[in-house]
Write a structure and sequence with these properties.
Mean pLDDT: 85
Structural class: alpha/beta
Largest sheet: 6 strands, antiparallel
Number of domains: 3
Strand order of the largest sheet: 4-3-6-1-2-5
Number of helices: 7
CATH class of the largest domain: Alpha Beta
Distance between the termini: 18 Å
Low-confidence stretches: 1-12, 239-262
CATH topology of the largest domain: Rossmann fold
């Protein structure tokens, strides 16, 4: 049941104003991969970022896609992203490859970071699968500049599929960056199980890549201590029926429909007491928007954390791929989360 009388008191949490950035350079990096250098049209410094950050690219037709920044985070004069063209996908990568041109001005969100380095780690192990190298490349640049102990393992089908080989050359010579080419058969590549077999105190591992790579990394690191394993998905994983694929026990995005609360549910806005009914065919974000409460969104699939909301009471079926177990105790992602109780109270 919806309390219409209270709606006037609700406040929207809208997105910060996007930036207009100039495409200064588009560069071929590897088979199917182009990098895009974005700068301020008048040369102004861009907002500061930390390694692992990403931006939203607002493309033609209202398409929004998230891309990790892959240049040195200390660089304030530019952002660099890299995009793998996917023929079978939602079309964002094809738009980037086919439509974007040098000197175009594009709308870009403020940078956000859900995949940060741990500042007090004694060593960082970075595992990249294919285009998943992008946030880890930024981490490697930062760690190289600070002199911290790290190693980046970059897994790809072959040399022609590995981006930024020239840029990594110096780090390869130092033994900091190691390429692993498997010819298309992961069994012939990096032995992730052996690499992560023993955890050394103070060591943290970070990984990003396609679904199979992510599952392999999670399985290999499942015995590592809580809080030492960090990851970022660039698309929602395929459903997993029985095998645990995350050290942080991320929820299955395809949770059985039986977990839905029979008869529907409501959310309550803590600041006003307003009750908003959430139909079975709408997300929390959509139902809030229908009632005049606009929440900033981006990926709409539980990957980016843009719509993260704090909840004060109620039980949640978390279906995201971004929040940790600890965060799940206080937060939900309003684009995909569903209830386990009749009422959720939101800190809005």
């Amino acid at each position: 049941m919806e309390d219409h009388q209270s709606q006037a008191g609700l406040q929207s949490r809208s997105a910060p104003t996007p930036m207009s950035l100039l495409v200064r350079q588009i560069r071929f990096e590897a088979v199917g991969i182009n990098s895009f250098e974005l700068v301020h049209p008048t040369g102004e410094a861009l907002p500061a970022v930390t390694a692992g950050a990403h931006i939203d690219m607002h493309l033609a037709g209202g398409v929004i896609r998230q891309y990790s920044l892959c240049n040195n985070p200390g660089e304030r004069h530019r952002y660099v992203i890299a995009v793998l063209r996917e023929e079978v996908g939602r079309g964002g990568s094809r738009l980037m490859h086919e439509s974007l041109r040098v000197q175009d001005v594009v709308s870009v969100s403020q940078p956000r970071n859900n995949f940060s380095l741990i500042s007090d780690a004694k060593k960082h192990i970075l595992l990249a699968g294919g285009i998943g190298v992008t946030p880890l490349k930024a981490m490697a640049h930062y760690l190289e500049s600070t002199g911290e102990d790290y190693e980046l393992h970059y897994c790809a089908k072959g040399q022609e599929h590995a981006a930024f080989r020239e840029e990594f050359a110096a780090q390869v010579e130092k033994g900091r960056v190691i390429f692993h080419f498997d010819g298309g058969n992961p069994r012939d590549g990096l032995d992730i199980v052996a690499l992560l077999a023993a955890h050394v105190e103070g060591t943290h591992v970070y990984y990003c890549g396609p679904g199979g790579f992510m599952a392999a990394c999670a399985k290999a690191a499942q015995h590592w201590p809580r809080g030492t394993v960090h990851f970022e998905h660039f698309k929602a994983p395929d459903p997993v029926k029985s095998e645990v694929v995350s050290v942080d026990a991320i929820s299955d995005a395809t949770s059985d429909a039986a977990s839905e609360v029979a008869g529907g549910f409501s959310v309550q806005i803590a600041s006003t007491g307003a009750l908003i009914a959430i139909p079975d065919d709408k997300s929390i974000v959509e139902a809030l928007a229908d009632s005049g409460v606009v929440i900033e969104t981006s990926c709409q699939s539980g990957l980016c954390g843009t719509c993260k909301l704090r909840y004060l009471s109620g039980e949640v079926d978390h279906r995201d791929f971004i929040l940790s177990d600890d965060e799940h105790l206080e937060y939900l992602t309003a684009c995909v989360s569903r209830p386990k109780s009749k009422l959720l109270v939101l800190d809005l």
